[in-house]
Structure formats: structure tokens, C-alpha cells
Amino acid sequence: MSTTHALLGILAGQGISHGYELKREHDRRLLGVKPLAFGQMYTTLARMLRDGYIAEAAHQRVGGPDRVAYRLTTDGRVELDNWLSEAVPPAAYISAQLFVKVLVALVATPDEATARSFLATQRAAHLARMRELTQVKTAGGASVTELAVADYLLNHLDADLRWMATTLDRIGQLRAEVQA
Amino acid sequence: MNDPILEAKNIEKWYGPTPALRDMSLVIGRGEIVAVTGPSGCGKSTLLHCLSGILRPDQGSVQFQQRDITNVSEATRSRLRRTAFGVLFQFGQIVPELTAVENVTLPLQLGGSRFRDAAVRAQRLLDRLGVGDLAGKRPGEMSGGQQQRVALARALVTEPEVLFADEPTGALDSLAGEQVMVELVRLAGDHGTTVLVVTHNVQVAAYADREITMRDGQLETAGQVTVAGEAR
Ligand SMILES: Nc1ncnc2c1ncn2[C@@H]1O[C@H](COP(=O)(O)OP(=O)(O)O)[C@@H](O)[C@H]1O
Ligand SMILES: [Mg+2]
Fold first, then answer.
1. Confidence at residue A88, expressed as pLDDT on a 0 to 100 scale
2. Per-residue pLDDT tens over the stretch A23-60
3. Which of A77, A92, B4, B148 has the fewest CB atoms within 10 Å around its CB?
């Protein structure tokens, strides 16, 4: 996740904003994305300022310490537009823990039992999460954003499950190769 | 689990020399929504046909509300299918020559209802499923998703105890499939209908309270994955 570009986009949509407003809007509008920690936000804003993507817009004193408001610069707008026009690198590396766990289980243990039982445990966990996400749809009253979040996660869990089933079907061969 | 409504005891079904179901036993509780999943050809449809009385198993028995439905006359089974069971298939269930409302009234009329009364109920259900304004249209004038919602109305208009659905979203794109499943689950919930939905799609199975996985004509629970895999 590029926090820089998410914040550039929020700033573009919001107009001039304070740091805490950017965080609030980030968390509210990008529902389902991990909420931004304050520390991470201020580090990112500092870097964006240094790179010239944002600039200080005004100083305001609201009954406390100075709170800086930011605006998007021309460079920031260009950077945002470039980012939006580029494809995300499709699956360059596998970052999923579940993939790594299966391989490590095959490398680190004498037979396939650990990998198999991990896959069974994971399958049950995936199915339980899928049922939970599906209830967002059947309960009624969900916003379109909530449905989009549920769909994104459901499709990824579905893909994992299919990978897990295929891997289970050839776990013996996989183990032989990984241990060689 | 609530009290059992449907129970299969050691059923087997053979097509010639090939077994499609082997020693299959399961219990479904009243009001449960159960998904049967598994790879193509593992026997899901055969199981649904045996449980719904469309097929007679070669061995074992099926009980509906604690009464055997395997060794009863064809007339009894067909009455059961008409009154207590509803079925929804992938497609091809609604009559192309009839309008939506005529299709939905059909099961009620077969049960002896007058068209006027039946039409009122049918219209109410079609409204609820968001296809009320298509009541006078024929299937050819509707999208696949709309046709499937009419088929769902037809399956549920008799307020069956059990709804059997075989790949109900198999011919639909994902959004139309979602509409069908959402309505199916809501209607079943409102009426306490028991549902058995057969699907190879895990996202459809996720609408159920419980999932049963099959492989090679048998049950495969999470714990048995190992055994089934090793047997290959
Ligand atoms: N009418 C039939 N005649 C012969 N074989 C059949 C018939 N129906 C199904 N089969 C076979 O029985 C097995 C189970 O089929 P089915 O119940 O349709 O599986 P699924 O619904 O899981 O795809 C498959 O091997 C299939 O080829
Ligand atoms: Mg089938």
C-alpha cells in the first residue's frame, strides 16, 4: 500500500486539510484498508513535504498548538496522476503468509502431516471468514462501499481456497521437490 | 442442531457399474441452510436427487420428518415433491410460453388453487423478489438473473419445508448470482425453510450455515482431507 499516494488522493479530493483531517478521511473513505497510525501519517507528510508534493497552506491557531494545513502542489498532482495511470505490478512476489507456511512446513518437518493439518485448519478459518463477510450482504442495509470491501476480500479468500485444494492434491510431489 | 428434518442413512447410488454415491449418511436440521460442495462429478447432484425423492437410492434410506420416503409409492413421492419440497436448478425450470406470474402460479394450481388466489400470492412473491413489474413478461424477455428469481418464486410459492437448489447461480454473472442468493437466504430465513444448496462455488457455499464437502461419492470433512488425499 502506498500511503503517500493515498494521502495525495485524499488531499486532492478534500482540498486544503490538516493532518488529523487527512487521517480521518483516509480511514473513513478507504474502508477496509488498515487505519493509518498517527506516527506513520506524520512521517509520511514530512516526506511528502520534503519531496515537494504538498506545501503548507496556512497556520491556524485553534486553542492549542499550531496545526499545519496542507495543500497539494503541482508536482504532487503530477505524481498522483502518474500513479493512478500505472498498473500495479501483478503478483511480483508472493507475500502471503499461508504460502510461506506450507513451504516451511514441508521443509522443516519430516513428513506432510504438518502441512496437511495446517491447510485443513486454514481452510476452516477461510470458510468461517467467508461466511462472516457474506452476512454483510444478507443482513441488508450495507453501503455499496461495504459491499465492495466484502467482495474484494471474498474473491481473494476464494482464490486462496482454490490454491489450497490444488496444492493439497499434489502435496507429496511438492514435498519431494522442496526437500531435495 | 434443531430437530432433524431430512436424514440419509447409508445411501448408495450406481449408474451401471459406476458408483455415484457410496455409503452416504447425513442429517439436516429443520431451518438449516446447508451447502454441499465438491469437485465436478463427485456426486452432489445425485445426492440432491436422492434426498428430494427424484431418484431412488439403490441402498439405504432417506427419511423426511422421520418418515421413510425411499420405499413408498411413486404417487406418494410425487405428492411430497409437489407439497413439501421446492426445487431450483441452474436453468430451464420456467416454462418459456408462460408469463412470470403464470409460471409461479403453476405449482399452486397443480395443488388445486384457483388462478385468482394463486395469482395474488405469486404477485406478492415476485414483488418481494424485485421482479414484480415483469409479472406479465415471458422468460425470453427477461435477463438470466430475472428468470432465476422467477424460478425461485416458483420454487417457494407453495411454502415448501425444504428447498433443494442445484447450482442456482451457475448460469449467472456474479452480481445477478448475489441477488438470487441474498433473496433465497432472506426468504428461507423468514419462513424457516430448510435449504440444501449444491454448488462447486465456495462463495455460494458461504451463504450457508454449514458446509458439507464431498469427494468421489463420499463425505469429506475437514479431518478426512488427509485420508482422501493419501488415497490418491
Ligand atoms: N444419468 C447418469 N448416467 C450415468 N452416469 C451418471 C449419470 N448422472 C451422473 N452420472 C455420473 O455420476 C457421477 C456423479 O455425478 P453428479 O451427481 O452429477 O456429480 P456433480 O453434481 O457433483 O457434478 C459422475 O461420475 C457422473 O458422470
Ligand atoms: Mg451437478
1. 81
2. 999 999 998 889 999 999 999 999 999 999 999 987 65
3. A92
Q: How far apart are the first and last CA of chain B?
A: 34
B229 in a domain, yes or no?
no
Residues in chain A within 8 Å Cβ distance of B226: 113, 116-117, 120
For residue B19, the domain's CATH number is: 3.40.50.300
Total count of domains within chain B: 1
Nearest CA in chain A to B200: A162
**Residue B229 Cα, gap to closest chain A Cα (Å):** 6
Contact B202 A131 (CB under 8 A): no
Domain that holds residue B104: 4-219
Q: Which residues contact A95 (CB under 8 A, 6 or more apart)?
A: none
- Tens of pLDDT, residue by residue over B110-135, are 889 999 999 999 999 999 999 999 99
Give which of B83, B53, B88 is closest to B163, Cα–Cα: B88
**Ligand 1 pocket check for B39: Cβ under 6 Å:** no
| ipTM of the complex in this document | 0.81
- Contact between B228 and B215 under an 8 Å Cβ cutoff? The reply is yes
What is the pTM assigned to this prediction? Answer: 0.85
Contact present, B162 and B195 (Cβ < 8 Å): yes
Q: Is residue B231 part of a domain?
A: no
State which of B46, B198, B199 you would mutate to test the pocket of ligand 1, scoring each by most atoms of that ligand within 8 A of its C-beta.
B46
**CA B41 to ligand 1 centroid distance, Å:** 6
